[in-house]
Amino acid sequence: MNLLEEIKRYEPYNDQEEQDQQLMVKYLSTFGNLLTRENEMAHFTASAWVLNKERTKVLMIYHNIYDSWAWTGGHVDGEKDLLKVAINELKEETGVNYVKPIVEDIFSLEILSVNGHMKRGKYVSSHLHLNVTYLLEVDEDLELFIKPDENSGVMWVDFNKSAALSKEIWMQGIYKKLNEKCKLLETE
User: 166: exposed, middle or buried (C-beta count within 10 Å: 0-12, 13-18, 19+)?
Assistant: First the structure.
């Protein structure tokens, strides 16, 4: 199944996801280069909300550009399998080597604004990340590593305190949403 079909099939959790889903479908139907950074206004990223086996902790990184604790993830750079991107980014940014999807389908959708910033000595203009989030599991006993060019910390955070750790107000809401959705999985 292609990305457009996956996003169309996705069942939005709330108004934010419904609106963002509609825009993603519109953009995918309009622009041909959303899987690469060639589209400087908006392009796809894949993120991971990573839980331990007991579902009591979330694995977070201290993101250098955003100067905040955050989830893992990154640009898809032409890759059509966004779950693969989310897993690879998690491995790159934390050093973990074994990852298990809790749910193989898209777990969450969000369009995120990115302020202009410097990256590797070059200015990157403000743009949108059309983000697809996956829910993954990692053994919290695995050794963790920092990826110095992207983050300056990696740690397990109490599930209920993870959203408050972010300095980004908008992301706090996204992380709260993800936690709410995780709790719903427990009751199914």
Answer: buried
pLDDT given for residue 108 in this prediction: 98
Domain ranges of the chain: 3-187
Low-confidence ranges of the chain (pLDDT < 50): none
HSE-CB of 129 using CA atoms within 13 angstroms: 20
SS3 content of the chain, % helix, strand, coil (to 5): 30, 30, 35
Using CA atoms, how far apart are residues 154 and 146, in angstroms rounded to an integer? Answer: 6
Architecture of the domain delimited by 3-187 = Alpha-Beta Complex (3.90)
3-state secondary structure of 103: coil
At residue 113, the pLDDT reads 93
What pLDDT shows up at residue 156? 98
| Complete DSSP assignment for 136-174 | EE--TTS-----TTTEEEEEEEEGGGTGGG-S-HHHHHH
pLDDT on residue 120:
81
